[in-house]
What we know:
Elements: H1 23-26, H2 31-40, H3 45-58, H4 63-77, H5 89-96, H6 98-104, H7 110-150, H8 158-169, E1 193-195, E2 210-212, E3 351-352, E4 367-368, E5 372-373, H9 376-380, E6 389-390, H10 394-399, E7 406-412, H11 417-429, E8 434-440, H12 445-457, E9 462-465, H13 474-482, E10 486-490, H14 496-499, E11 505-508, H15 511-529, E12 536-540, H16 549-562, E13 567-572, H17 580-589, E14 595-598, H18 601-613, E15 621-625, H19 630-637, E16 643-648, H20 651-666, E17 674-677, E18 681-684, H21 688-699
Parallel strand pairs: 3-5, 4-6, 7-8, 7-9, 9-10, 10-11, 11-17, 12-13, 12-14, 14-15, 15-16
Antiparallel strand pairs: 1-2, 16-18
Amino acid sequence: MSKTPPGExxxxxxxxxxxxxxxxxxxxGQPLVESFQRVNxxxxxxxxxxxxxxxxxxxxxxxATYIHQLEQYNQAQQSTSPPKxxxxxxxxxxxxxxxxxxxxxxxxxxxxxxxVLGEAAILIAFISYLFSIPYQQQKKIEDARNVLVDQxxxxxxxxxxxxxxxxxxxxxxNAGLQAPKAQxxxxxxxxxxxxxxxxxSIQQWPFKFFEHQGIDLSHANLExxxxxxxxxxxxxxxxxxxxxxxxxxxxxxxxxxxxxxxxxxxxxxxxxxxxxxxxxxxxxxxxxxxxxxxxxxxxxxxHQVQGIWTKFNHAILHRTDLYQANLNRSILKGSDLYKxxxxxxxxxxxDFLDDANLRSxxxxxxxxxxxxxxxxxxxxxxxxxxxxxxxxxxxxTIARPRSPRLRIGLIKSADSTIxxxxxxxxxxxxxxxxxxxxxxxxSGVQNEAQTIxxxxxxxxxxxxxxxxxxxxxxxxxxxxxxxxxxxxxVDFCFDKExxxxxxxxxxxxNSLKMGADSAEHLTQWAAxxxxxxxxxxxxxxxxxxxxxxxxxxxxxxxxxxxxVTWKEVSSVDAITQADIAHIKExxxxxxxxxxxxxxxxxxxxxxxxxxxxxxxQAKVKVFGILDxxxxxxxxxxxxxxxxxxxxxxxxxxxxxxxxHTAVEVLRHKKTQYTEYPIDHRLLTQTDKAAVKExxxxxxxxx
Length: 702
């Protein structure tokens, strides 16, 4: 029985595609020729095939017919045009057999034939594409290398970064890269993964059949380049010029830096675990907080490096030259310092536990104050250990190992209640292994620096202070940091970039918000108590110190937001107790003042005292920034007191937390700089219950 559908010829005969031998001459500029030209602009096989199918459909031609026409067009142009890549060769093979293929499938409809032809063409094109992959990859590699050569003199180059990423993704090397002073912050070069099948790879689950391989940048010139926060894991930088390079916070785990020149380099906070620094030069480099765990530093030259709080756990330092190095507070647990040179180095509070090897290590005149050892003979196997500075009880410490007793100092720049609150909180946080020192330092940057130096000389472990000046205080704080002292600031925070080599934590309230909240309550109070009177304010701002100026800015913002009419009649500074005379003078010369606003604890305290001394309690009221204490609480509970509101800065809470943070750093449980925002509390005469509750809370912190 015939299976041919009704009405359909069981033996259809499809003519072969009609080819036009003069296509180029007769159809120049015609749509079909323009179609061929569009196709020829496409180099990628899979894209070209897709466009061919679309073009054939647009001209209502079968795929085979369109390909024949395209081939003929291309052949006609070969005499005048450069040869095309052999992208259509698979189609030529298909064309040669198309007649036989049609005869064989003469029982199949034209639609099915087109479908089969299309699928076959796709398959052949896909196979052709696979064979072309190596050629395409090599071209990409060559193009990327050309970009690196062309842009070697540019500091800022997105093209260079893109080219390096391309080479990395294709696992291609680029030894001898020339990119001095290049800016490549946060560049990620860790995308090369090569097949790796071993007994170890199938021992773990999930199986790992690909292994990461770092980019090869050996013998590169990256002098003074900026690669902060870059990812160069397992990179090969052997023999490279990295003098003055910035690799802070970069990931160089497992990298090869053998023989590289890193003199003056910045490696602060970098991950250098397992890296190879054999014969490398690191003179005067910054290594603070870097991680050299299990790194190989054999014969590395490291004169005058600064490696405070640096981890050298189980690192190899055979014959490493660390002359005059500063390694205060660093960890060298299990490290091998065989014949290393530590002459004149500072090794205060360094951890040499877990069988750290000091055999034949040169310790001539090294400072080993408060260093930790695991055995007496460990130190005695070193050379010139007798001349090294050691803690008086270092032998007893080895015999009875325990956490060292820590000393934390509070520098009080004024005898005000806020510092008393800090001290109270700090003493509540202390225990038998933590001792609190408290020193009253006269105001001024020079006096502050002198007090800091005295604490350093005494062997203090940590300092809590409110810096006298955001700029002037920096040199003394940097000196404390270099001595291995943990510095924590209160009532002021440096920006993170400034703080990273100086301060470990800060506790601070929002100064702008405090000033604004104080102004908001002041205007609300005035709306009730000064309904028909002008609002004449005398400002005591303490703006001499920059850390208090934001309080005043916040106050101005708050007053502007209230739409209340007011006048700043006069203003004075208050930074010492003697400045009460200036406040009294301002009140005497401006009898129209009915409000004093204090921009700091001392300013508000002196404002209250000046009003009371002049007997102006009934006429002049005081608002401002002031910490909570029993005396202040009694004032707020007294309706006859001039003090109407304060902004409490939670001094007891801050002092308590500052001690715990310092201990965490000193026990190596915390290393990164952290800002701790503290919520302030507005306390007023109109809310006596809150004053009583918060006073009880402040006195009961454990």
